[in-house]
Amino acid sequence: MRRTSAWVGWVLCLCTYLSASAQDYPDEDEIILDLFREDGTKPEPRAVPTAEFLKCNKAAWRVHGQYLVVLRQGTHGSHVQRTIRRLRAKAARRGQLLEILHTYSAALHGFMVKMSSDVLHLALKLPQVHYIEEDSSIFAQSAPWNLQRLLQPHGGSSENGTYRPPNDGGMALVYLLDGSVQSSHREIEGRVLITDFNSVPEEDGVRVHRQASQCDSHGTHIAGVVSGSDSGVARGAGVNLVRVLNCQGKGTVSGALAGLEYIQSTLLARPVDAVVVLLPFSGGFSRSLNAACRDMVAKGAVVIASAGNYRDDACLYSPASEPEVITVGAVNSVDQLMSQGAGGHQLRPLHRSSGTSQAAAHAAGIAAVILSSNQNVSPVQVMQMMLHYSISHTINFLSLPDSHRLISPNLVAAMPPANSANEELLCRSVWSKRSGVTSSDQAVSRCRLGEEMMSCSSSTPDGVHAGETISESSGQMECVAFNALGGKGVYAVARCCVIGGLQCQVHASPECVATQHHLTGCTLWSAAGISADSRPHGSDRRRRVGSSGATSHAVCCHAPSLECHLLEKISADKDQVEVSCPSGWTLTDCSAVSPGSVVLAPVAKGNSCHVGSASGAGGSAGVAVCCRVRQPEQRRASPHP
């Protein structure tokens, strides 16, 4: 499996955690010192421990007495075994037993252990332990399917209405983490490999636990959606089943972690260029499971997960809350949400259906087709293409809270056309959570690794804010928005883009210095608050003009054959203005100017810039920066009609 760069971002969802502290028992020192002499290491200091204890945010899903012990970064296999020996010694001294269920050495270094709360108390004190997470349950999410909708927007069906995607996905391999598959079913016979991996909990409330061959149809159904002979989205794609759910559709975080580690070891032994990992289940928020998914993406796999059927914020669940994952929700036959969107960095292409496992399977099939067209595209490029070719603004968002409607993507997944090119500039808006309401509160948004930030803006419900800036943290650009005195909170909105050779820099000045760079966005910050009279200057595409007393930074980008132009539209008598980039051009920045009124929220929606005025008196102007990578056959031209 190829290595690619991957985006590291953080979703603003919190799992309840407890800091643990304890007191050493001096009577165990002799046996512990014997272990130190054996290992050739020093005893741990008697400082207050820093290890965290994490519990699932859904209390009913917790697996009591079973814990994942995760070691610090930089540790290796010998540290895992050493920590296990130390923990056994401490437990034995108190007459306690423990059972090691599994060890991990890929995305995480650590082990899964059954132990009492007394031994947990001791484990939190071990020197190499980063955190301990209580195991929790994960659950299958299911439903029926359809295919024609995938092709309708881009004319992918034949004249007689049969399903004809651009290709059959035959160059891609899909790893399905599910329950069981009836391999003899006519839809998937000969199309699914059932691996020898099996990590499932016992069924609840039964005396005789069923074998995999006796399970229900969830895994068979999902495999059929991916590559079934009649119902499959990517009928040539290979599917490998990794069993992590029992016959009741229930699994554990620890089992899913072991399954992901199995996939990594398999791909290390037999590399595959185009890999999709499908996770059609949902559980409570898990730092460990999210980290393992993030590591899969960093190693080049496209990871797709179910948002869950709980009509709740997907940020509360894993693996849906991991920003690296393509999280897929579902809508019903009248375009109403079956799973709520969520704020922050998660983007959710949604598919028409009545369950999110099945919707995720459709998305996995689309990803397999994209990868089969070009196996060199990265996971972030696959995600951008899926967003770009989705159907927008068809979902009924009335069931969403007001705070979620603005920042949740209104997209239904569709198959890219056969002639879709990888040379097109693709961008998306990444919204932060809304900040607090004090004047010192901030909001932060980030792009994935592999994306470039072409602009940064701030958006408010009342027009009161102090502006925005771009900072750098650990080598990654961050869009930071500032609330102002009297403000009701602010959003940070990063415009994140991909194209070959794209490089962006932030200049602590209102203009781009290098002649080959284009002004693709600009930021403005003022401690006194932002007035709505600052914008890129229409006559100079390399400079921004702003109000006095404000700090302005220019975002300057370069890519082979990149060209950018500025569009401006003024409305004298309306409180809403929309500026759209023409076909073939991509919106990279959305800003506003309104000398006579307060601008509420310049918002980039797809390829359009929407500006609203608080007073309703009109006079607002929308300002859009539109860019494209010019193809050899295209003449150099402005996007103006």
TrEMBL record:
Main location: other
Signal peptide bounds: 1-22
InterPro entries: PCSK9_C1, PCSK9_C3, Peptidase_S8/S53_dom, Peptidase_S8/S53_dom_sf, Peptidase_S8_His-AS, Peptidase_S8_subtilisin-like, Peptidase_S8_subtilisin-rel, S8pro/Inhibitor_I9
Domain Proprotein convertase subtilisin/kexin type 9 C-terminal: 420-499, 558-630
Family matches, as Pfam families: Inhibitor_I9, PCSK9_C1, PCSK9_C3, Peptidase_S8
The protein's required cofactors: Ca(2+)
Record's protein name: Proprotein convertase subtilisin/kexin type 9
Record's keyword annotation contains ATP-binding: no
Subcellular location: Cell surface; Cytoplasm; Endoplasmic reticulum; Endosome
Subunit structure: Monomer. Can self-associate to form dimers and higher multimers which may have increased LDLR degrading activity. The precursor protein but not the mature protein may form multimers. Interacts with APOB, VLDLR, LRP8/APOER2 and BACE1. The full-length immature form (pro-PCSK9) interacts with SCNN1A, SCNN1B and SCNN1G. The pro-PCSK9 form (via C-terminal domain) interacts with LDLR. Interacts (via the C-terminal domain) with ANXA2 (via repeat Annexin 1); the interaction inhibits the degradation of LDLR.
Domain Inhibitor I9 positions: 66-137
Plastid as UniProt keyword: no
Family to which the UniProt record says this protein belongs: Belongs to the peptidase S8 family.
UniProt source species: Champsocephalus esox (pike icefish)
PANTHER family: PEPTIDASE S8, PROPROTEIN CONVERTASE SUBTILISIN_KEXIN TYPE 9
Alphabetical UniProt keywords: Apoptosis, Autocatalytic cleavage, Calcium, Cholesterol metabolism, Cytoplasm, Disulfide bond, Endoplasmic reticulum, Endosome, Golgi apparatus, Hydrolase, Lipid metabolism, Lysosome, Phosphoprotein, Protease, Serine protease, Signal, Steroid metabolism, Sterol metabolism, Sulfation
SUPFAM superfamilies (UniProt xref): Protease propeptides/inhibitors, Subtilisin-like
Residues the record marks as active site: 178, 218, 357
